[in-house]
Amino acid sequence: MQSEIVNRVANSGLITFNLEDYYRPGPRVMVDFADQLYQGQILKEKDFREFVKTAQWHQYQNSFVAITCSADAIVPIWAYMLVALALRPYAARVVYGNLADLEKQLFFDQLARIDWQQFVGAKVVIKGCSKVEVPLAVYVEVVNQLRPYVGSLMYGEPCSTVPLYKAPKDGFL
């Protein structure tokens, strides 16, 4: 006599939180001011404003853009703001920093749209494997957001999880 095979994972009520679902596809580009510095050290306002005025910003259409200066130079804040304004009509998103900072911010933008209340009392597994690289800071942010609401929080795959948090029995929030 054979017993029926029961899928305990499917019957567990676990909710899989897959960060891959919050990845925004599209080109990632970095604009580096280093080439715009006089003798690699100084930003001349007149020259920089001419660069901003004549640059082909349309090439960044629908791109995610990080703006930075990789040279060891003092770049005034207004220079970053000026470039951000020039890129805004074309780029899908502009951030200060490198490509890693950009990726983190793109995920944060997506997470900010979530109604975390939907997870009140839920058993949530933050999926570990992904086809896209998810920055570590994003995992930390998801834990910060979920913690006040969930009944339990785990990491990994539903069939093999690492327990992270269990809410006290006296309630949530």
What this model shows, in words?
It is a single chain. This protein is of the alpha/beta class and 173 residues long. It has two domains: 1-24 and 115-173, no CATH class; 28-91, no CATH class. Helix content is 26%, strand content 21%. The protein has four helices and seven strands. Helix 2 (77-87) links the parallel strand 3 (64-68) and strand 4. Residues 5-11 have low confidence and may be disordered.
Structural class, by secondary structure, is alpha/beta
**Poorly predicted segments:** 5-11
Oligomer: single chain
Question: What is the molecular shape?
Answer: elongated
Return the average pLDDT rounded to an integer: 91
Distance between the termini: 48 Å
Largest sheet: 4 strands, mixed
Number of domain units: 2
- How much helicity do the residues have? 25-40%
**Rg, nearest Å:** 23 Å
Number of strands: 7
Q: In order across it, which strands form the biggest sheet? A: 1-5-6-7
The number of helical runs is 4
Task: Give the helices and strands as they follow along the chain.
Answer: EEHEHEHEHEE
Residues in β-strands, percent: 15-25%
Describe the secondary-structure layout.
Elements: E1 14-17, E2 28-32, H1 45-54, E3 64-68, H2 77-87, E4 93-96, H3 99-111, E5 123-127, H4 136-146, E6 152-157, E7 160-166
Parallel strand pairs: 1-5, 2-3, 3-4, 5-6
Antiparallel strand pairs: 6-7
Helix pairs in contact: 1-2, 3-4
List keywords for this structure.
single chain, 173 residues, alpha/beta, four-stranded mixed sheet, 26% helix
